[in-house]
Specification:
- The complex is a heterotrimer of chains A (448), B (580) and C (469).
- With 448 residues, chain A is an all-alpha fold.
- In chain A, 75% of the residues lie in helices and 0% in strands.
- In chain A, helix 1 packs antiparallel against helix 4 and helix 7 runs antiparallel to helix 9 (219-243).
- Chain A is globular.
- By secondary structure, chain B is mostly helical.
- Chain B has 25 helices and two strands.
- In chain B, a hairpin with a 2-residue loop joins strand 1 (51-60) and strand 2.
- Chain B starts with 6 loop residues before the first helix and ends with a helix.
- In chain C, the strands form two sheets. In chain C, strands 1-2 form a two-stranded parallel ribbon.
- Helices cover 72% and strands 3% of the residues of chain C.
- Chain C has a domain at 260-469.
- In chain C, strand 3 (56-61) and strand 4 (66-70) form a beta hairpin.
- The chains are: A mainly alpha (448), B mainly alpha (580), C mainly alpha (469).
- Chains B and C meet through strand 1, helix 5, helix 6 and helix 24 of B and helix 6, helix 9, helix 11, helix 13 and helix 15 of C.
Amino acid sequence: MINSEYILFAGIGLAIIVDLLRKELHIEKQFYLHALTLIILVASFLTEIFYGNMSIPFYSGAQYSYFINGFLLFLSVVIYSFIWADGGAEGSTYLDILFLLAVGGAMLVVLSSNLLSMAVAIEMLSIASYGLVYFQKSDRHLEAAVKYLTTSVVSMAILLFGISLVFAGSGTLSFTSLYNINFIPFVAGVVFVVVGLAFKSTLVPFHMWAPDVYEASDSAITAFLSSISKTAGLVALIRIFFFAIPVSHMISTLFLGIALVTIFFSIFLATVQDRIKRILAYSSISQAGFAFIGLGLFTANGLFASVFYIFSFAIADALIFLAYRLFEERGIIYRKDAKKMRSVSAIGLAGVILGLLSLAGFPPTIGFFGKLLIFESILGSGYVYILIALFFILLFSTFYYFGLLSDTGFGQEMETRKKLLTKSPRMRVKEIIVLILILSLFAGIVFA
Amino acid sequence: MLFFILLPAIIATLLIPLFRKEYSFIVSITGTALSLILSGYHFYAGFGKIIEQSYTWMTVNGYSIVLSTVSNNLTLFMATLVSFISLMVLIFSTFYMKKEPQKRFYAEMSFFIFSMLGLVISNSLLLFFVFWEFIGVSSYLLIGFWYSKEAPSAAGKKALVITRIGDMALLAAIIILFTAVHTFSLSSILNELSVIPPATMAIVSVLLITAAFSKAAQFPFYTWLIDAMEGPTPVSALLHSATMVAAGAYLAVLVLPIIQSAGMTGLVTGFGFLTSLIAAFLALRERHFKKILAYSTMESLAFMFLAIGTANTGGAVFYLFTHAVFKSLLFFVSGVLALSFGTYDIYKIKSRGSRKSWVLIPSLIGFLSLSAIPPFMSFFAHLSITYGFNFYENVGFVVISFLTALFAFRAFFIIFSSNRSRPTLKDPAAYFPVYILAAVSSVGGSFLLFFNNLLPIQYRLDMFSYLSLVAAALGIYMALELFYYKKASRMVAKLYLLSDRIANYRYDNILLYTGNSIVGFGEVVAEFDNVLARSFSRLAASAMYLSSKSRRIQNGDALSYIDAIFIGMVALLLLVVVML
Amino acid sequence: MIINLIGFLIIPLIGIMALILNNYTKSTSQKNITIISMCSTAVLFLVGLVYGFGGFDVSLVQSLDFSFSLVTNSLSTPFILLSVFVPLIAIISLNREKSESSTIFHIFYMLAYMSAIIVFISGNLISLFLFWEVTVLSMFFIISLFGDGANKRSAMKFLIFTQFGSLTLLGAFILVFIYTGSFSLTTLFATASSIPSIVSYTIFIFILVTALIKMPVFPLHEWLPDAYLSAPMSGTVFLSAVMSKLGGYILILFGLELFPSILHRFSIPLLILGIIAVIYMAFAASGQKNLKSMLSYSSAFYMGLVFIGIVSTSVSAVTGSVILMVSHSFIIASLFAMSSMLFSRIGTHDIYKSGGVMKRMPVLTFFFVFMVFATLGVPGLSNFVGELLIFIGSYSVFPFVLVSLVGLLVATNYYLNSVRKIFYGTLHSSLKKISDISLVEIFGLSLFSFFVILIGLYPSLIIGSFGVI
């Protein structure tokens, strides 16, 4: 049976071997390695599409994981091609392998049906991510990587401790048999597990690392962290709480509380940021909060909404960070610089604008349908008050989304037109990648 | 088809912009003359018949909203009267308005004539309201004809705002009546009065009386009429004495059964007396010729309301007719004098010398008419007005007759008392209408004898009629003594003082105060709204401030992030424990 | 030859494409393209009125019941009329705007134009909401990018308020979907009775909030003064003439036709609110010293009357409300257009800083006074019919609505005052050189007047074109 994961892991092995051989044979060109990585990712993605089931059925074991892995692979292909086109991969020898490992780890998180294997998968994703953050080897990246590493190690320790407590409480770690439990250690264990995973999914108050790391990393890597890595964290939570642990009303309340706090806090902080990338980072955090609401409802609709929402914001986040990469290299860092965007790249600007609209939940982007499903599941469970609270906080979020949008000043008459920079072929390729993501921002609606 | 009599006027309105300005008066006069001929023909052909015609304007919710006209003696008489007076005024305008931008003037006049004719033939209250509004609008435009001067434009605005109080009252009354009987047709409404509850009836009558009073410039609303004299004199003659203001009385005539069944006739009479007293006193001290005439118009309209208040519609209509004739005459005279001497101030006219003017005799006829001296027509009208009066009303009326004659002949004697003389302008367009109207005023009283065929009318020559006559004669004599021979100047001074005192209590000031306070209130509300709007921005700003404070939590120190993780973890654990 | 409603989407989209292409080729001015495509839309509408409209339906997302479906419902025709013609005539007559040459402006204007039409003919709640949001978005950018004064702040405020209204609308739609399982308008009307009463109350309140914000009616109107004042004139015209009608449309369609019994129950309190709103707006307008903000408040005043008509639930009053919306749309658009013409010549919106303009601009004065009378409800012009029907209908529900006639009185005062201050009196020495409006502007204003007179004389044309339950 052909399976995308097999292909991916076989590919990782192959890549390591090729890398070794390359050193042995003294081939300085890394082109082959990059091409191989991309081929592995594409092949894996195609397998997923052709042999997987891309619809999202509920409660049918791990069926929905095809969908998640599918879009994870899609995003990986896009992000990797962008990194390659960007030239970031040139100086490094280990980027390809790290990237493949990280993607593999994320996919394993989605697939795992045992707490231990899940912990291992997350560890694999995390360790690869530290490397990715530091792959350009500048001081800024080093600081980010260290910050990420230190905080992440703590959270991983908490996660493992939690898993051990769960084991103490139930005597098993398999998702299918976690119902026979001893209460106290089990509950404590669950709380620790939540904390560990919430770190990865950047839920407040375990999100603190995210703005700093997002901002300091290369934007393409930020795109990876905020889409693929965060997806893995959220899906792990879904896996555990939907398919393994018996949930109670209490957990639901707790989760909704965490989600609301996340949304409120991140949106409040996003409003006062000056640096564009930091705004985007906080916005990304708030998106996780929204996705978490769907999870916290513990209904079939909620799960579906949550999965779709993760999908929608992962695409939008990937798009917006990649598009922002086009501007970052021209020194557009602060909000007040945003008006120069038009002169750098129209497609990039379109990417930023549409990405922002999607994150803000404006139709007809995919973000709107994500929010629609979330709202629907909230109302379906009867939480009208939560909905109204969300209305208000969404209004607050329009401050920064639309403030940023009008800062970009895309409507201003183009006296800057003449100064439009000549574009390198490389820029063209990057723009095309952004364009693909823009299209998928609309095409993704079919999965709703 | 009754509405044919409207067509010439409205067609003239629309055609005037197409013609050269020198010809605009021809179009207008032709239109009005055609209207006069048509209404005369209808009067002749339809005499004694009642024909209603209706047109369904729209149908909503199963109710038809119908516009209907009625042709009966009253409406046809009114139509003929209106078109006759309008024709006279338009002819006079060719004299008075020679130097003005004529297109706009004649277009607006034709539009007014169209609206006034439409008003008098309406049967449906809705149609009545339509033309009622048109009249208000054309009055606004015509008063403010000299837009570049401050006073006329202010007067026009004031006139429309105040009459619009009545318009809104009328609209409210129409709506209330429609809700009660589901029809706009006046004849049907009057047939179904019994189904309307008394309270509704009372409200409707008050509203209708308000509407009539505001249009007819009665007591609480009268100030606009005095200011309206800023407009051109033909406009004052046509709108502000003969027709438009009379529309208020005409409305009261039409809806009298409603007022009667609500028992509000006393209100009408009471305000009528009040208005006539105030008007007579205020006219005594006025120096502006047209404003004296305006006060007398107010008073005359009050007479009509006195007749209406005593359920004497025939008398009211007859007085409306006589008043229209002699008051237009007087306005024409004032126009001729003003053009000749360049002022409306009666003392200035006197000092510039008007003794030998050709208008002396017509104006004497006019003032005698105004003072109800036989054989001039107003005397006969007074016989008919007083028919329904009781003792007190009769006594009051005698007093008012005295005052009327006094202020009328004060004006007359002052104007024509100087021996100096300067030539007055003489123009066929001026003396033709003046002489015609003077002739009608002199012999028109005889209409009373066969007016009964037209409308039921009763009159009586009793003791009080003689008393009134004596009072009027006394008034004329006093005016002669006081203002022509200038005897007893102390008494004159006292008289002036008295009316000055009344003037100080003029409703005008209260109105001004009310107007100012409304505007002030508007400013307060606007300011409040501004504050309200800003408060939302403040709210947003304070939230921003809060966020910027909370920003400090994120200080970039990895260790404190780890602290946060632990704090969060402990908090979660505690929460779980509490919730368990 | 039945006109398919998809034409209302396709023709403006072609127009937008042409705008983008023309941005590079520069073969003609962007404004011409906008006018041509709007004219084509108008022709399409007129042909459709004669031959009938065909529906359009394509299902996009099964699970959400999201289909792109366009159908005319019993209410749409008058609303399409106003949304097709008013922006067109406005853009014809406003030819001295600074935003004139901008491609982006025209694209957003076309987008707003198109989506407002589509909202009125959407047969699916999601597509309705989708285009509803596009209008909001386009207006946000028009204000934020092309406005003057505190445009960024005003745009943000506008967005925050209307966005809240949109969210409540979305909430209402989702609740409807949860309980009827469909976003389709036709299914919705068939199954609305199956919604439990507490839920339908919630839906109703959501819809009400949306309408109150959008129209806007008194307690939720705070965005109005800023947004109307800061927007470029064509934006203000669109806001007052089309956007505010979206609120009325939604209130009739969902508040009245979907939950008549609830509206009926709340009728009296809402009428009281309406009366307060009307009086408040009338006084607020009378306190303005700026012509543009006076017109803005006056616009809100008339929307208050519309609100009264709708919440009275009486058929005549609702009919009157629709007529008033159509008529007010033409009238306020022309008044705003004229204030812009005036502004471009005398350089101020301040009522007290100009005077005697009539001497130099008799034609403009004629149109202005004409429209003032139209807006004051002089019979024979369109507003009168609407006001009359509203008062007739709502009086039988709640007699005290006649109090709002006081508002009309106040309106008479401030309108005539502004006419007097601006046009009458002695000519300001600084205004000696101004010229009267051009032929194009006269043409635009005549078109507005044509509709005002047409509706005023033959209201049956509008009344016959729609039905209220």
